[in-house]
Amino acid sequence: MENKSNVLMRRYELGRLLGQGTFAKVYYGRSMETNQSVAIKVIDKDKVMKVGLVDQVKREISGMRLVKHPNIIELYEVMATKSKIYYIMEYAKGGELFNKVAKGKLKEDAARKYFHQLISAVDFCHSRGVYHRDIKPENLLVDENDNLKVTDFGLSALAESKWQDGLLHTTCGTPAYVAPEVIGRKGYDGAKADVWSCGVVLYVLLAGYLPFHDSNLMQMYRKIGKAEFKCPNWFPAEVRRLLFKILDPNPGTRITIPKIKESSWFKKGFYSKSTKSDVKNEDLSSTDTDTDIGASGPRENGNTAAETKQDSVIPPNLNAFDIISFSAGFDLSGLFEENSERKEARFTSRKSASTIISKIEEIAKRLRMKVKKKDRGLMRLEALKEGRKGILSIDAEIFQVTPTFHLIELKKSNGDTLEYQKILKEDLRPALADIVWVWQGEEQLLPSQQLQQVQQQQQHLQPQDQLQQLQQQDQQPAVATN
């Protein structure tokens, strides 16, 4: 390696060889700072440049950075020297899924579990505009908890790789797993091609061998083009039906991932399990002070008590400095977040706390989300179905400025950020319109001026010196930024 001690840039210790390809080798590694096990992919710069694969390496790095998901190997960082490129990645202790299949077919429940996780990962990739294009058991790893991890994005394509016809045109992949339209070289939809490959993987997991196999490559391509395959007699009828829909040679009629998730075999034995949030949040389950409200509305038992509690809800008060900290001018998150998609949204309202709570419950019912009411104006909305990164959860917290003026913060506490942004934009914001005074970022007045106006109108004035202090604090940064 780079030196005799096998230490990379004084940060990682390189160990045994895990695998190798034409242009790269993968080693087991250990962080010298945290002692964390990692996988280190070492790419030879000269070899890559000689064959013109520099763009492919850049695409692989870009794709892996876009797809952070529990069932996808995470790229921690990329380092380089004059001669080598190093990917520091998540280490999957269980090795390749291929090694399990090589010993024989898997039990149906085990195959279904891996297929669930594969579909979840691939669906997430597609939502981020990443198409894997080389899905096969050799590129599916298993961690110490027996969870599947998709790896090797070396042949992946990004959405911007599409031609003007909206299709991809590079023929790539592993012959036995590639979709017929990819072989046809007339352009193909990356998402539909990935679905086909997932179907071949499912067949292999359940059968222990490939659906399309022939010593003559052209004969195998012919079988793939016509989808000529037979299911073993031990395949359940539900699996057969699903496979024939996935391995449909016509990409236009091939089943989509949302439809796969709705199939009876896929849903059998399926249990929702929330993935770890990418935003560390306090566990609110222990602070429940009221009944859960499901998609069909509040439970009958305890409704009267719930209404009484709702009327008596007193959200936490905001003082002058709290309001300043909520001001968009003091929000420094843009300096640290990788993208502009915020995970929280704030608005002000002149409605009472009980009116705001009722409105949020009404919206949740319409969106078929469960509501958990918490102490002091904090509520959590939870989706009933698992999304791309687990159950989507949204916290709604109400802060009291005056008895008739409130600040409400909506924040994703679990699930996929894009799903949250979509429901916020298309559902929550329009539905909240009749109780919103102004959304943060759209206000014409500074927070202190808003507060002063409301206080004067509602005659709930604080002492004049405190209001002046608030105005002075809010005006000082405005001068500094000009």
Radius of gyration: 27 Å
CATH fold call of the largest domain: TATA-Binding Protein
In CATH terms, the superfamily of the largest domain is Kinase associated domain 1, KA1
Uncertain spans: 271-291, 296-311, 329-340, 457-464, 473-482
Quaternary state reads single chain
| Main sheet characteristics | 6 strands, antiparallel
How much is the average pLDDT? 80
Strand percentage, roughly? 15-25%
Number of helices: 16
Q: Name the strands of the widest sheet in spatial order.
A: 1-2-3-4-6-5
Return the structural class: alpha+beta
Distance linking N and C termini: 53 Å
What is the CATH architecture assignment of the largest domain?
A: 2-Layer Sandwich
The figure for the number of domains is 3
Q: What does the overall shape look like?
A: globular
CATH class of the largest domain: Alpha Beta
**Fraction of residues in helix:** 25-40%
Number of separate strands? 18
Describe the structure.
This protein is α+β, with helices and mostly antiparallel strands and 482 residues long. The protein folds into 3 domains: 84 residues, Phosphorylase Kinase, domain 1, CATH 3.30.200.20; 171 residues, Transferase(Phosphotransferase), domain 1; 197 residues, TATA-Binding Protein (2-Layer Sandwich). The chain has 16 helices and 18 strands. The strands form 5 sheets. It has a 6-stranded antiparallel beta sheet. A hairpin with a 4-residue loop joins strand 14 and strand 15. The longest helix is centred in the first third of the chain and has 20 residues. It is globular, with a radius of gyration of 27 Å.
